[in-house]
Write a structure and sequence with these properties.
Elements (H helix, E strand, L loop, with lengths): L23 H29 L17 H12 L11 E6 L2 E6 L13 H20 L3 E6 L8 E8 L7 H7 L16 H8 L7 E5 L2 H20 L1 H8 L2 E2 L2 H7 L3 E2 L8 H4 L1 H4 L7 H17 L3 E7 L4 H20 L3 E5 L1 H4 L1 H10 L6 E9 L12 H4 E4 L2
Parallel strand pairs: 1-11, 6-7
Antiparallel strand pairs: 1-2, 2-4, 3-4, 5-8, 8-10, 9-10
């Protein structure tokens, strides 16, 4: 505005007074604040870096040969063990190494009491971890001897593995599959399994467990509808969903920083369910109904695109039986990986009680406890989910 023009109505009057002088006290406050900012800026930046620093992660790679040093050998064995799958990638395990013995312990702080109240799923995850450790030990030329629930089981020890040297190297093909095994939650391409592939997978089931199969389209669609209803019921349960939501990571970067959980991108969803996952799967949000619908449809499509689904059942109902079932599942998963097949364990129809009996009957089973349903097929390889490093899950004594 030209200074010669009068001010317009409603505009502030121009300042015509003398410039304001800063007092001594104000000057000292401003100067002190500036000095503090300069002084503490590096410390604050360091604190932010520490707070955002991700936990150490276990690499998806293993030494091809047994390390000569006993400590390095134990680390390699545990590094192989922790590549096993677990529900929501919660990784409910710890290890104690004492000379030639490795103890596997349940980390109950990582249990899922709402989703898995009897800890059946947790014990199966620990069984998968145990099997990975045994595969690596045999591949390195060690002879492992397992004791289930030894005398110090009160401390949470679920298995104790004693290792001796000088055995023939075995399980090399499964050892190679340890680092390439992935849980694939995306759609498969619908191609069926070759008879020899199905026979190889069934051969991993020893005496005791049973593996029931469905691979015809009508049967797959019937199971898919059952999975849809079970998944919808599970996600709609706000207490259960709150527990599972704690393990859902909004990005792969968050999963890597935490070292656990499942990135939302790994669920294979698209559209609003993927964009607004924070709301869709928030049990306190009105949008949860849409999340339940999206997850249910996603689960149904996963089964419909599979080449086959299998149901693993066991006659026993105790923690040792569940541990051994987890071992069987992991051998099946490693075998599938070695055959070039994608796989995904699906537990929703077994978590909701009213679906367990009908699901077992649909597979033609009887007289056993259904523990896990697994779908198999063909799909593009997916990225691995992170694992916490050995240093975070293991303690070493007199090694």
């Amino acid at each position: 505005m030209d200074a010669s023009q009068p001010p317009q109505p409603g505009s502030p009057a121009p300042w015509t007074g003398p410039p304001r002088l800063v007092g001594r006290r104000e000057f000292l406050v401003v100067a002190g604040g500036a000095a503090a900012s300069i002084t503490f800026a590096p410390a604050l930046a360091w604190a932010r870096r520490v707070r955002a620093r991700p936990v150490p992660l276990q690499p998806w790679s293993l030494p091809a040969e047994a390390p000569a040093n006993g400590l390095d050998l134990a680390r390699a064995l545990i590094g192989a063990a922790v590549l096993a799958p677990s529900e929501w990638n919660s990784q409910p395990w710890r290890f104690e190494v004492d000379d030639q013995t490795i103890r596997l312990l349940a980390d109950t702080q990582r249990a899922l009491p709402m989703t898995d109240p009897d800890r059946r799923g947790m014990m199966m995850s620990l069984g998968a971890v145990l099997e990975n450790l045994l595969v690596a030990a045999r591949a390195y030329g060690l002879q492992p001897t397992v004791r289930y629930h030894p005398e110090d089981a009160a401390r949470g020890v679920v298995a104790e593995v004693a290792l001796s040297m000088g055995a023939a190297r075995r399980d090399r093909r499964f050892f190679d599959a340890l680092t390439t095994r992935r849980t694939n939650r995306r759609n498969f391409d619908g191609r069926g399994l070759l008879p020899q592939h199905r026979a190889a997978l069934s051969a991993q089931v020893a005496d005791g467990p049973s593996l029931y199969w469905i691979d015809d389209r009508d049967g797959l669609h019937a199971v898919a509808d059952m999975v849809h209803d079970a998944e919808h019921a599970q996600v709609s349960d706000r207490r259960m969903e709150a527990e599972q939501r704690a393990w859902l990571r909004m990005s792969g970067n968050e999963a890597r920083q935490r070292g656990d959980g499942v990135p939302v991108d790994a669920l294979g969803m698209s559209g609003p369910a993927n964009w607004f996952a924070g709301k869709y799967f928030d049990p306190s949000s009105w949008f949860l109904r849409f999340g339940a619908g999206s997850m249910a449809k996603r689960a149904r499509e996963c089964v419909r695109t599979a080449g086959a689904v299998a149901l693993l059942a066991m006659p026993g109902h105790d923690e040792t039986a569940w541990l051994q079932a987890g071992q069987v599942f992991e051998r099946i998963a490693l075998c599938a990986t070695q055959l070039g097949l994608a796989h995904q364990a699906m537990s929703a129809p077994l978590r909701v009680e009213r679906f367990r009996g009908p699901l077992l009957r649909r597979f033609g089973g009887s007289g056993a406890e259904p523990l896990l349903m697994v779908r198999f097929g063909h799909a593009r390889t997916v990225d691995p989910t992170p694992r916490r490093a050995v240093a975070l899950v293991a303690s070493f004594r007199n090694t």
